[in-house]
Amino acid sequence: YICHSREGGNLGVWIPVYTGMTNKLMKKIFRMIIFSALALIFTSFWNKGFILNLGSLFTATLVLAFVFYLIVPLSKIILLPLNLITLGLMSFLVYLAILHLSSDAFHLFTITSWTFPGASIFFVNIPKTYIPYLGNLVLSSVSISSIINLLEQLL
Question: What is the pLDDT of residues 91-100, one digit of tens each?
Fold first, then answer.
């Protein structure tokens, strides 16, 4: 309990403060910022068309955390009828639009077209492939959301 008054004096008014809720909220905010930063860094490691400026990493992390944990759930609620009709495609398009706006309007990171050099994993050969801007936007979106969801499930 905390004594509270407007003038700072003791009026005998005690307001209960639930530190357990505050600690949980702070942990959730801290986790979402760390998960967003890791998702941006990991995506920039494997995706050569996703260029992350280290100077704007903190700002990009805060924007991504805000978007992923507040804007996307709100858009899913608001666009629920369209989401049901399109079987979830609408929420994916909203996330692509938000990622595009973060890239172009705020210049927090750069998404460009690039050429995947190819890979050979066990018996699977992936050839050298040109990935245009829209394809890289989709790849970056899937990568970021998958990394954040995976980290949330693991931790």
Answer: 888 888 888 9
